[in-house]
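Sequence, structure tokens passed on for absentees:
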Amino acid sequence: MTRRLSPRLREVFGALPLEPGLRVLEVGCGPGALAREIARAIGDGYVLGIDRSARTIAQARAASREEIEAGRLGLRQAAVEDFELDSGEAPYDIAVAIRVGALDGRHPGLEARAHRRLAAALTRGGRLFIDGGAPLREVRLARDLPKTKTKTKTKTKTKQEPGRRLEATMSDREQYQPASDLISRRIADLGDWRGKTLARMRALIHEADPDVVEEWKWVKPTNPGTPVWSDGGIICTGECYKGVVKLTFAKGASLKDPARLFNASLEGRVRRAIDIREGEEVDAAAFKALVREAVALNHAGKR
């Protein structure tokens, strides 16, 4: 039943043209909530969920034992731009991708490679759906498009944008390293109380919202990036400074916070933050309630 899904995934599930017996490929399956729901809806069909993060695939397997044992669901660690059917594996009728960076249009080279891999993995009439519509839009793969002759354009040099040097020199593959892996690396690199604190708060966020999406944003030459947790919009960010771990809630000023966890950025009109210092421990139940309230507020704004 779709009550197992977040409001966003319920909309996605309802928009998919599912029928009994279909073979469905979910790209960027995360913890597997949507893949499991699809598996229940297509009867004797089959769902394969792929994700580039080994940690995420492990989480999905742990939560999907029933569907895997029944032979309705499979999970595989793979990046979409590298995905290939196994020997003897039948192609898929539908592919769906939600919040997959390689397919969001920002990096045409990586996207073209991903499209080629998906075209090879789908049946001749197979269809690809991604987010960005209402709530989905269908993407026509290259094999579906009429062939046209195109003139070769002369390439012109463009002036380097100040402050964009790091992003311009990073390869597509480096830029698309899974956010969850980057967050895990940040925690490991800290190697002190800050890493343990950030790891604990991360775990509490996932407990409060199993559909949470981990992101890595705002990479600059002076900043390697910031962990971000989102569902229907940004829930909060996790920043680590010398003496404090700071969790900034994007819409904190609109949250009730009955436990008064917010202790920083109190003057702002939109954000609020929780500063955690060495030896301090945030109340788990109150924090998870705050995360759930933030998620509800994000989705309420989209209705």
Notes: The radius of gyration is 21 Å.
